[in-house]
Amino acid sequence: MVKRNRKTIDQMYMGLEPEWTAENPPPTDPSIRTSAYTKAAHWYNYYCDKKKFTKTVLVYCEKVLKFSKEDMQAMKKLPDWKVYMKHHTFVKLQERGWDFEEERIESSKAALFALLEEGKLLVKELGIQKETKPKVITISPHERQRIKVMNTIAGDWDEMVIDKWVDGIFDKKLVKFPTYSLFQLHGLKGSAINIFKDYVMEEYTDIKHAYDKTDDQSVEAYDHIKKGNLRLMLNLMDGIFEDLERVRESAKSVRTRNKKPKARDAQVKTLNYLKDHEESKVVSINPVLIPQAGWLWTYNTKTKRLTEFKTNSTEGFEVRGSTLQKFDEVASRVTVLRKPLDVLPQILNKTIKQIDNVWKGLTTKVTNPTGRINKDTILLRAEEYIR
Fold first, then answer.
1. CB under 8 Å to 323, separation ≥6 — which residues?
2. What is the pLDDT of residue 122?
3. H or E stretch including 113?
């Protein structure tokens, strides 16, 4: 039994690559022509291949516009997106038989020549026009951020939203975009907000024109989508814009510079503590074990106060002078020991979970510590932070 070739889902929805011939010329009726062009442009946007599209434009510049070898070197210095983003559709549709108006052809050619001058200027500024080995081109922080946005959250947007809209799925229960979470996931900073917002806004503007019927081309491009679904699309993007403002406010609140902590020995250099106490039969640990630890137990021999310090900081404790920093004031605790000789050995030898049971067995009042360590304080034990 012969297995027939079947169309993929993409082919069923998008159709085959557009092509016009003498037997099947481009339409001349304005409304049909606009629809055909929009459908063809969408086909190439859907099957976007950045490297391949860039090569298509470069071949056109070399073969049709007769760019010299030096010109082509200058063009290749430009970022791929500058080469293909606004020019690939024009070049490819022309190859496939679309008859552009003379004004459009001259405008597109002029844009490519302008791009060539930009490439030449880049070559001149970098001083690499005659070098055979390519050098790394330094890009601005903004451009680097734009590239990161395109490679991360913009790709998520296309996959999680645009692809579903193309498949005719508009239900808000099925089409979701967790903007805030994705910004956190990809480690995007505040400067990425406007870049991504502008990216979404391009889609929003066309759909809004179609919904309000204020632009004939937009209405034609989205005439296959019901008005109710257009409203769902707009609502989703409105929600994204609101989430972006939340990201912006969050970025402002955490925009602080954290100083690198000092070395452990430097932190405890001036720390006052008691090295040993014969009556309680305890000695202090080396204080350099305290910075970056997650738990610390101390005992004040004068007041008979047992203190348990705990931190939730992934960097552990810090010590400044004779004060412990970065401990959790709520989770940490202090109490007076009535029988220190019975309790202190358990603090030294039991596990953290067993020590918690020891605390539960104490009947004296439990309060919260201040973090101060003085000359009467024994440094009983320190444990590393469990990550």
1. 371, 372, 373
2. 86
3. helix 102-126
Place of tokens 């009947």: 363
Q: Which pLDDT score, from 0 to 100, does residue 141 have?
A: 85
Secondary structure (3-state) at 301: coil
- CB distance 376 to 280 below 8 Å: no
What tokens appear for 222 in the block?
A: 């989205």
- As given in the structure block, the two tokens for residue 170 are 């508009």
> Cβ distance 34 to 220 under 8 Å?
yes
Q: With contact defined as beta carbons under 8 Å apart, do 50 and 80 qualify?
A: yes
Residue pair 358/350 in contact (Cβ under 8 Å)? The answer is yes
pLDDT bucket at 42, cuts 50 / 70 / 90:
confident
pLDDT tens track for 244-283: 998 888 777 655 555 677 888 899 999 999 999 999 999 9
Please, are residues 242 and 177 in contact by the beta-carbon 8 Å criterion?
Answer: no
Q: Retrieve residue 304's tokens.
A: 């008979």
The token pair that represents 310 in the structure block: 């705990």
> Considering the entire predicted model, what is its pTM?
0.37
What are the structure tokens assigned to 6, written together?
């079947």
**Residue spans of beta strands (DSSP E) within the chain:** 276-277, 282-283, 293-300, 305-310, 318-320, 323-325, 333-336, 377-384
Q: Which residue has the tokens 């932190």?
A: 267
- In 3D space, the residue among 314, 348, 349 whose CA is nearest the CA of residue 328 turns out to be 314
